[in-house]
Amino acid sequence: MLVLLAGVVLCRTYWVGQQTAYAASAGGQSVQTLALPRARGDFYDRTGRRLTGLSPRYYALCLPGDAGYTALFPYVPYAEQGLLYERRNLASPFLIQVDRDLTAQGITTCTVPQHFGGSTAAHLLGYLDSEGRGVSGLEKAYDDLLTASGDARTVTCFMTAQGRLLTDTSPLVAVETPGTGQGVRLTLDADLQRACEGLATLYLPRGCIVVMDTATGEVLASVSMPSFDPQNIAASIAANDTSLLNRPLRAFSAGSVFKVVLAAAAYESGLDWYTHDCTGEVEVAGQTYRCALGRAHGVVNLRGALEQSCNTYFIELGRLLGAQRIRKMAETLGFGTATQLAPGLQGASGTLPDAAALENPGELATFSFGQGALTVTPLQITAMMNTVANGGVYRTPAFVQGIVDADGTLTGQTRAADTRTVFDAATARVLRSMLASVVSEGIGSEAQPKTGTAGGKTGTAQTGQYDENGEELLNYWFSGFYPAALQAGADKGKQYALPLECVPQMMFINKTLLQKEHIRIPDNDWTWDEFYSLCEQLTRDTDGDGIVDQFGVYDYGWEEALVANGCSLFSEDGQHCLLNQSAQESAVQFARKIYQLNAGTDLSEKTFDEGRVAFRPMLFSE
Q1: 609 phi and psi angles, rounded to 5 deg
Q2: What is d(CA 410, CA 182) in angstroms, rounded to the nearest whole number?
Q3: What angle do CA 81, 86, 89 make, to 5 degrees?
Q4: Which residues neighbour 601 within 8 Å (Cβ) at sequence distance 6 or greater?
Q5: Which of 141, 176, 138, 183 is nearest to 156 (CA)?
Q6: Which of 113, 189, 372, 559 could form a disulfide with 53 if both were Cys (CB 3.0 to 4.6 A apart)?
Q7: How far does CA 84 lie from the centroid of its chain?
């Protein structure tokens, strides 16, 4: 028995000695190096304000042992608490996200900018995968640049064999690879972007908003609804609510908003004179096409057809123009071509029916009022309307100004501005006037601003798709322009021209016509009777065909008459209409007399431009 016991004691003594030797051979310490998440480069708005990286993330160093677990648990986000629990018994330190800086509590904490702090411009910017790499939008387009922007940092700990920091040492935070500090400056205006997003949240459950700077073609706001949380993509995928679609860049059926293309082609082709008697429907190749609600618009010219969005007018105008001229105008305005936003990122090209397809009369008819095979993107429509507002000059939409360095300095533009003249300034001026009438007199009246003037075009496009109740899904459009006061004639903080709302109105006098008719005008202070007498003398049939072809005045309506009579339509507080007062009544009656003097003829810009009109109210800028 004693021998046996002695043998056990000897074995136990030998095992303990072996463990001590093992510990000694381990050197009693180790070096542990941990990698911090790398800060991603940011996006900035046009003024240099950050759109990403607006808030910090904190990473705390957790040392082995229950003390580290207990100290950190109250500050670890709920989603990370399971990870903290799993790692609590590790023999090596690790980093974990916390909700605040714990340095004051003696816990090593490092700060890394949180890339996404909200959903501003979510569709345009895009989102990241689980490894922090861009997989959509501008995040994908500039992924390499943004990934290399932040410093690659490490936290190094000198540990004892028991998993504690060596005495008189502290964790060392170091930069392993310096980042470039680069980011991307966009054309967006952060304030306008957020304002549009707020409006869309209230009034636009599904759709999009695009705002463009007329002078440059730069996109100031781009909103798609429904939106999504770039930090929770799984929720949008599960909801299957199309929230990941960037609608401004997707192609949809256009509808009547495309009629602007035909209006431009008509003026460029000299067909702006065309007048049509709308009965509410027209037959083409055995197929009947109707205006909305089957409404008959009567005799309409191009202005009236735009105001009332008369389908039959544009079908007949399309016949006159022919497919080739319509397609050429559409192509020059950017339809059928993908819009390049950034490297590897572009908007859809849409579908522009080819010449062979448009040889079919029915295809040409539907194409002429924006239906059929035609599809367009909201961005393309915005660029088209911008061409009208910009004097006939097309500017390729831009979303990116360029790359910025660490201090926010723009190091170079991403591309030169692409511009081309689509139609002349005179055509653009007439189109602007017509589109302003759509808002002030036509079916676009809901876009009438409280102050100033606006122009635009509505559209309702059939899609051929139906909901669960069997009702067809329709695409509703409005695209327009607004000449904001004072900003309209400003550039880089200096005023070069007065905007529309601030420009004085003057009476243009065709002295050549007056001299030909041997008519002398009063020097100043005309009375209404004198003005009417002059117009009466000038308005006549000059070639004896029984049709009045020379006129005294064009574009003189009740608004001009009110101003001339020194009165206004509403009281100063805007609460009362003053039409029942004698001065206002006289002005309206005078405007009616002028209209009747013109034999009810709906004069056009062409009549005026041909010199067959003696007087016309014009803005000083015109």
Answers
A1: -65, -25
A2: 10
A3: 120
A4: 548, 551
A5: 176
A6: 113
A7: 44
Q: Which two tokens stand for residue 251?
A: 């192609």
Tell me the C-alpha distance between 524 and 505, whole Å.
Answer: 16
Helix/strand number for the chain, H first, E second:
20, 29
Query: In the numeric block, which tokens belong to residue 255?
Result: 């509808």
Distance of alpha carbon 83 from alpha carbon 130, whole angstroms: 16
Contact 405, 235 (CB under 8 A): no
Task: Look at the pTM and tell me if it is higher than 0.70.
Answer: yes
What's the rounded Cα separation, in Å, for the pair 309 and 312? 9
In the numeric block, which tokens belong to residue 598?
Answer: 């013109």
* Residue found by looking up tokens 């961005």 in the block: 379
Q: Angle CA(564)–CA(568)–CA(572) in degrees, nearest 5?
A: 145
Give residue-wise pLDDT tens across range 270-328.
998 899 999 999 999 999 999 988 899 999 999 999 999 999 999 999 999 999 999 99
Residues 143-199 pLDDT 10s = 999 999 999 999 999 988 877 888 888 899 999 999 999 999 999 999 999 999 999
Residue 58, token pair as written in the block:
């904190």
The two structure tokens encoding residue 479: 């695209």
